[in-house]
Amino acid sequence: MSKTIYEKMTDKIMLTGSKIIPKLFEMIANAEEADLLMAMPGTPEQLAEKTGQPFEKVDALCKTLYHKGLAFKSFKGGVVGYKMCRDMIQFHDATILWAEASREYHDLWQRFMEEEWPGFARLAEQFFPKPFTRVIPVQESIDSGKQQVLDADSVNKIIESADTVALTKCTCRVIAHKCDMPLEVCLQVNNAAKYTIDRGSGREITKEEALNILRECEEKGLVHVTMNKAHVGHFICNCCGDCCQALPLIITEGLKICDPSRFQASIDPDLCSACGTCQERCYFSAIENTGSVMQVIADKCLGCGLCKITCPEEAITMVEARAVDFIPQ
């Protein structure tokens, strides 16, 4: 039996076998739009030639698909072209922030995250050598005077070195509705920020505003997560343990689908009063009470630093646990 256009689109973003993703594509793209997406990449002129459609019609459809989050602009040779979303993450994040997305569309995405995503995440853990994302420590948790801190290790440096910063809603919390954590806290940096502003799926903010948002997220107990690359300039998500794509599966199954930071919590037994504040703050059950002091379980710690910033005895330090080359180039 031949596949539908929506099943072929699902294959293209590496989710072959999903029953829900084709329904999501069908809900957001009519047959004509789907055909154009499958003809991408190309400029509107090239796509008009490929599909045999008038240029004006194709150009308008490309802009519509860009607005919906199904197509992305490319600028090779100084000419604007369009390409279809390359994977589930782009499809998820871009279309959920489509201004006209319905509650029905969001609910179907949440069905996918609950029913199908865990299975695909288990496969991704085995198939990909490194996770797509990585935790970054809370800024105040690292003593940079005693250890090497890369720009990619520092949320402050990522923001301070940016030429453009934008703010969007957290796509995971938009569809999940499982907690009362802040919603508009996802930071986009440089090219990602320019895309957000151009498309209208978020708004430009100042670096000072971005740093204030990061501090607020740390106080609320949200984990900083970014792209797992040594160069800075993509995004900083602020993730909870209820709605996030990755953290719940790390918590419940121990899946390695988000790398830890290069740092790890260490508790000084001479200073620790065993109050348990750090244990309450840790999503990953990486801190245990030995009876007299709290102790870090090293292989569970993702190095987020949330435990350190609320320790009343200042008994926790973040120590460098992984080499510089742990972060992919």
Q: Tell me the domain tally.
A: 2
> Main sheet: which strands, in order across?
3-7-8-5-4-6
Low-confidence spans: pLDDT under 50, at least 5 residues?
Answer: none
Strand tally: 12
Structural description of this entry:
The chain is about 40% helix and about 15% strand. The chain is of the alpha+beta class and about 325 residues long. The chain has two domains: about 110 residues, Winged helix-like DNA-binding domain superfamily/Winged helix DNA-binding domain (Arc Repressor Mutant, subunit A), CATH 1.10.10; about 190 residues, no CATH class. The strands form four sheets. Strands 3-7-8-5-4-6 form a six-stranded antiparallel sheet. Strands 1-2 form a two-stranded antiparallel sheet. Strand 1 and strand 2 form a beta hairpin. Helix 1 runs parallel beside helix 3, helix 2 packs antiparallel against helix 7 and helix 4 crosses helix 5. The relative contact order is 0.11.
What labels describe this entry?
329 residues, alpha+beta, Arc Repressor Mutant, subunit A, 2 domains, 6-stranded antiparallel beta sheet, 12 strands, elongated
How would the blueprint of this fold be written?
Layout: H1 5-12, H2 21-28, H3 31-39, H4 44-51, H5 55-68, E1 71-74, E2 81-84, H6 88-96, H7 103-115, H8 117-127, E3 133-136, H9 155-160, E4 165-168, H10 171-176, E5 186-189, H11 191-199, E6 203-204, H12 207-220, E7 223-227, E8 235-239, H13 247-253, E9 263-267, H14 277-281, E10 287-289, E11 294-296, E12 316-320
Antiparallel strand pairs: 1-2, 3-7, 4-5, 4-6, 5-8, 7-8, 9-12, 10-11
In short:
This protein has 329 residues and is α+β, with helices and mostly antiparallel strands. The protein has helices spanning 5-12, 21-28, 31-39, 44-51, 55-68, 88-96, 103-115, 117-127, 155-160, 171-176, 191-199, 207-220, 247-253, 277-281; strands spanning 71-74, 81-84, 133-136, 165-168, 186-189, 203-204, 223-227, 235-239, 263-267, 287-289, 294-296, 316-320.
